[in-house]
Amino acid sequence: RPRHPGTRTMLPLLLLLLATAHSLADKRYVPTLATSPLGGLTTTSTFVLEQPRCAFTKVQSDAVIWLVVAIPEAVANFSNSVGPGTPERAFQGFPASTHAYMTLNTTLRNYPCPKPPGEITVLRVGSETSCATDETRPTCNGPLLGPGPYRVKFLALNGSKPVAETAWSKPITLKTALPPSSISATGSGRSTGMIALTSILSILFAVLLAGLVAMLFFWGSHARGSSTFSKPEAVTVRRYNTHHVYDQPAARL
Q1: In terms of CB atoms within 10 Å, which of 9, 62, 93, 217 comes out highest?
Q2: Which of 76, 63, 253 has its CA nearest to residue 160?
Q3: Cα–Cα distance between 166 and 239 in angstroms, integer?
Q4: What residue stretch is flagged as signal peptide (predicted)?
Q5: Does the pLDDT of residue 83 top 80, yes or no?
Q6: What is the pLDDT of residues 6-33, one digit of tens each?
């Protein structure tokens, strides 16, 4: 059967598309939460990821690596062709109207491979608060509004063209803030009786201390008063020479 004239032209294009699809589908790197001993790997609005070191070894150095944060329902239908900064990828609409956003863009040279020994290489997602409501910054790394769960992946773009990506992470759930009503009033496992006893003892100690201060003040005032009134007055004694008066002989009559 004779071939269609356009078959020879379409065949290389199909092979190129299959190669491109295969390169994007080669997702051996899976984003994970950080394992560093810093603590606070997940909070009520943030989480910490390991940097994707050695995840894009076949990508040109001028490629830009983006982090994609999505709700689990958006993973199956996520389109790499929708670029960052568009309304469909803006943080300010996440997760109500935007089911996935793109943030933390950087060049591949900031993710050198292999990782230098002893270096902490992590990314904190949700650390920017100043741009959370600023619609002029749709790629804001703003705090997450709920516990999730969330799933993330890294996507490499050469201009606006996707050239490589990682696999999606496992679901990441943040911590949930406790309501005020659930916080125990006793605190640290102490009973109400212990708190009352501690309060009474504190009051008694304060009264005793005030009495001691007043007593010391009284003693000091008394001591100063006694020294003032008991001080002997200076007495000046003049020395007189006594003139003896001799009896005059009786006037003779």
Answers
A1: 93
A2: 63
A3: 119
A4: 1-25
A5: yes
A6: 545 454 444 444 444 444 545 689 999 9
- Which residues, 6+ apart, have CB-to-CB distance to 79 below 8 Å? none
> Which regions of 108-160 does DSSP assign to beta strands (E)?
122-125, 151-158
Mean pLDDT of the chain: 79
Q: How far apart are CA 131 and CA 83, in angstroms?
A: 19
Q: Per residue in 113-122, pLDDT tens?
A: 888 787 888 9
Query: Does the reported pTM lie above 0.90?
Result: no
Per-residue buried b or exposed e for 77-94, using 16+ beta carbons within 10 Å of the residue's own CB: ebeeeebbeeebbbbbeb
* Spatial CA neighbour of 102 closest among 126, 68, 150, 148: 68
pLDDT band at residue 58 using 50, 70 and 90 as cut-offs: confident
Whether the bond between 114 and the residue before it is cis, its omega within 30 degrees of 0, is yes
| Distance from C-alpha of 194 to C-alpha of 200, rounded to nearest angstrom | 10
CA distance readout (Å), 181 to 60, 115, 175, 185, 194? 54, 46, 18, 9, 21
Would you state the torsion angle of the CA atoms of residues 41, 42, 45, 51, taken in this order, to the nearest 10 degrees?
50
